[in-house]
Amino acid sequence: MARIRYLKPDFFIDEDLKNIPYEARLFYAGMWCYADKEGRLEDRPERLKVQIMPYDKVDPEKILQMLAVNKSTGKPYIIRYSVNGSKYIQILKWDSHQKPHHTEKDSLIPSFNGEIPVTTPIDTSNLLDEHSPSPLSLSSPFSLPLFLEIINDLNNILNTTYKESKKTKELIQARLNEGFTAEDFKTVHRKMLRAWGADPKMVKYLRPMTLYSNKFESYLQQGEVKKNGRNDSYKQDSGNDTARVDRKKQLDSIGTEISNL
Known about the structure:
The protein is mainly alpha-helical. It has helices at about 20-30, 45-50, 60-70, 95, 145-160, 165-175, 180-195, 210, 215-220, 230-260; strands at about 40, 80-85, 85-90. The chain has two domains: about 1-125, Arc Repressor Mutant, subunit A, CATH 1.10.10; about 130-225, no CATH class.
């Protein structure tokens, strides 16, 4: 069932969307009208073509592949997944695009859990470096779109260009297997940038090999550093030190007065 959705002015000047053909952009916006309250819909390319672009000669499968793996930016706009043999699509950043009415029915489509493989073959050759297996096996538990979301966030935050190396994939998958989420990775990126970014000795450790290691949970739980560069315990100890120094000065002053008597 089609629904009325928002289309913000920013859509037309989005610098990432400009890298995909205009028919794919129109198809992408049209998908919003057929997605449910959570931004999910059935992965049925031919039916979507009839619903969204019935009068145009376009390849809906090619468009969906393009939206799932954007060769220009590496940032996917949708995730294609399957549950019990049924194929579905999750529109990413749905809450940023839409604010469904509170009376809209809840989604009946199962959510993407981050471990279900993409079931439609996609061209991943441009996403693999020389150390990576080629191509990615569709039977692998590793989710390519989820991985890209994590590594792209790291590069955006640190202004780096880390590649999709085999070792980085293994580290991310290990943390996902432990129950951590993409949001946990993003939290670690920001926490450790604030903790190490201004330290010449530590800034070199802002890298996947360190951040995604078996110390990941300790980085996630690490307390925030205050604006003055000190945490609460340091501030408290510093205050005690100041009190001791003041007390010593007071005692020295009393001693001097006694010796002058």
